[in-house]
Amino acid sequence: MKRMMQSAATAGPIAWMTAAAAEAQGVRGEGYHDHMWAGGHGAGHGFLWLGLAIIFWIAVVVLAGVALRWLIGSGVLGVERNDAMRILKERFARGEIDAEEFSQRRKALED
């Protein structure tokens, strides 16, 4: 007990109270044995939480990518997908429609 109290006194009052409580419960020896993590070796829960944290951040990144893709595709971010106008320009470039029909359809699409 004297040895434990001497080492605890150098660490501070909290360590002294912990050492005194351990002594009162019948725990003998130097240092902190059998406290918190199954003898100080851990119970393996750290790997569980690490895995869950990794899964969480992967899910956050994936959901952010899906949301960004949805926002771009719907035109909310100012990037509009005007497939009809693109198709009309392609048909005009290939010669499938003439200039008069192109201008009529373009005006209809713009309205």
How would you summarize the topology of this molecule?
Blueprint: H1 2-11, H2 13-24, H3 45-74, H4 83-94, H5 99-110
Helix pairs in contact: 1-2, 4-5
Notes on the protein architecture:
The protein is mostly helical. It has a domain at 1-43. It contains five helices and no strands. Helix 1 (2-11) runs antiparallel to helix 2. The longest helix is centred in the middle third of the chain and has 30 residues, at 45-74. The mean pLDDT is 75. Keywords: Membrane, Transmembrane, Transmembrane helix. This is SHOCT domain-containing protein. The chain crosses the membrane at residues 48-72. Residues 83-109 form the SHOCT domain.
Question: Quick gist of this model?
Answer:
The chain contains five helices and no strands. The protein is mainly α and 111 residues long.
Name the features.
rod-shaped; SHOCT domain-containing protein; 5 helices; membrane; mainly alpha
